[in-house]
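All the exercises in this workshop are built on plain-text protein records. A learned vocabulary of local backbone shapes supplies the integers on the structure line. Once this layout is familiar, the rest of the handout is easier to follow. An example says more than a description, so a record of this kind follows:
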Amino acid sequence: MKLLITELHTLPLDIKERLENMGLKADFTDGSVEIKPETYDVVYGQLPFRTAPYEQFKNLKMLQLSCAGTDHLDIQRWLKDGILISNAKGVYSAPIAESIVLGILMSLKQTKTFMVQQENKLWKKHDLRELGLLKVLFLGTGNIAFESAQRLQPFGCWLIGLNSDGRAIVPFSLTGKLSEVHEYLAAADVVVNTLPLTAATRHLCDAAFFQAMKPNCTFINIGRGKSVDETALLAALDTNQLAFAYLDVFEEEPLKPESPLWSHPKVFITPHNTGSGQLMPERNYTLLLNNLQHYLRHEPLENAL
């Protein structure tokens, strides 16, 4: 069995030895060299399918994705062909959760305002807020929301999570149905979108969504850009409906230079970057090695699709 590994930029010292101990031969590529797709049984990452058509991977049996979201990939076709597929759910959750906490604190402590004041050497105080007893509403209760909620618990805020059926999830104080989101928006001080992109979530955050929010709410989007109507978002920012927005994902990426979001005083932007962290390669390799063991033992894969 032969393995192709791409997109992992940091190589743990013992990874080749560990693969050899499993009886696996692996090629590592950054996409700059030509590969022979038909020689690989297992592929890690999406990069090979950008340089060689899927049809050329004639012997592919297992695919370990480097991403959690799959809306941009032809997953259903691959599954119909009998390919075993696992995504990277949970790999990026910890650093994203830290960024969510950062975004909330930036809003409550008016960090952008103080940064501008520092640049202009302006000494001016403001009324700030603290997280205690504020209501933080998560759209989605998956790994990212779970990791975020765990980190927010010590601040003493109310943690509310919405999912498909309202099932209880620890550590949320309250859970509800996503279909009833408008009933929760009026009470939320912070709204965090962690949802994947589906037909149901496309432009979920539209004009009616923002109008239902509590005035001067904080909005954070690290889910999918296309779940937010950016025209409606800008309208909410230009009023007192939103006090602050932390945006890591956008309807079109890269975000166009002419977008008014870049220069909006209430907006903090990161370029789809919150999943980055020095521990990410180790989590990726751990998941890959675990799933290779499962595959060799004919066991179900972790994060199987």
Observations:
- The CA atoms of residues 205 and 228 lie 5 Å apart.
- The two ends are 22 Å apart (CA to CA).
